[in-house]
Amino acid sequence: xxxxxxxxxxxxxxxxxxxxxxxxxxxxxxxxxxxxxxxxxxxxxxxxxxxxxxxxxxxxxxxxxxxxxxxxxxxxxxxxxxxxxxxxxxxxxxxxxxxxxxxxxxxxxxxxxxxxxxxxxxxxxxxxxxxxxxxxxxxxxxxxxxxxxxxxxxxxxxxxxxxxxxxxxxxxxxxxxxxxxxxxxxxxxxxxxxxxxxxxxxxxxxxxxxxxxxxxxxxxxxxxxxxxxxxxxxxxxxxxxxxxxxxxxxxxxxxxxxxxxxxxxxxxxxxxxxxxxxxxxxxxxxxxxxxxxxxxxxxxxxxxxxxxxxxxxxxxxxxxxxxxxxxxxxxxxxxxxxxxxxxxxxxxxxxxxxxxxxxxxxxxxxxxxxxxxxxxxxxxxxxxxxxxxxxxxxxxxxxxxxxxxxxxxxxxxxxxxxxxxxxxxxxxxxxxxx
Length: 434
Known about the structure:
16 strands
């Protein structure tokens, strides 16, 4: 695996050659691999442009995410087809997108857990999902079901407001018995979303997700939670605070979700509050860019060479050149933050905002998995004298995540179709090499 862009300190993987620090050849020719595991509601995203009357006709709440029944789903989809309103149909799902993007960036294995229709017809929703998912995403652990997977309609009105209508099908029928504990215990991270906790009577997805989370906690595998929508968090923020504090190590959110769970509108203050519960937090804030906060040990802190930044927390970026750590591994824990403005000032034209956060999270997971990979194969490297959670500094991770988000924003699909180039002429030294 290779990180994109030009840097003074190149990050190359794998490590078949001599380690520059130990000057020893790796005795085992078979390198140990790292991988990540994600649990998702397997779903196909359908995007269409509609008017307000269409939203009212099907009893939808404008700007919100809601579940619809099969009858409404069939009628809605039929009218979209008849009026030729459908723009795109993509394989979707928050975690499905993240796993795909991770495998494209890392060119390495990820494992997706969920359900899949046992009988797949060409052109069906299940067919579309599989055919639009990277071959590096391991789908062997999917649980077969006799019925359809989910469908998520993204309805965009004249004002650009997005209304989400979700037809669950059997996507929430993942059984706890389908969770392979050894698979999770051997992974570099377990990735889940808040959507897994929004289920109906008779669904088993929540129980399966909780089992997986407890297995990861027991094995010391970092649990990564992405807060899919503010509306879900707002229903019971105290429950989510308790769940995050007890089970989650890394939290990904946008500024609206940050406000819902922390009560702070400022993304930096929201990230700071979230660090009371987790070890690392990623907060995307639209045009403001991205904030990342984490813990470092006082003896491993590295001062930034950038200008100190003002904000709700003064000089908050002073230790952004440090690598993030678990708070429990710090003797004298300090909070460290970094901020990156949108790459290249953001795209001239945003084709789609769906999946930008998933792309950013995939970049963070790539760095985290790379650290595990390097430690497995070069354990004697001085790099691992520090019990770091990440391979790179908070500053570099933020730039990488921003770059990936940009790539998603300039295309219609929420999933990357290719990895980032190793070198880009438009990347100046000020962006990557500082």
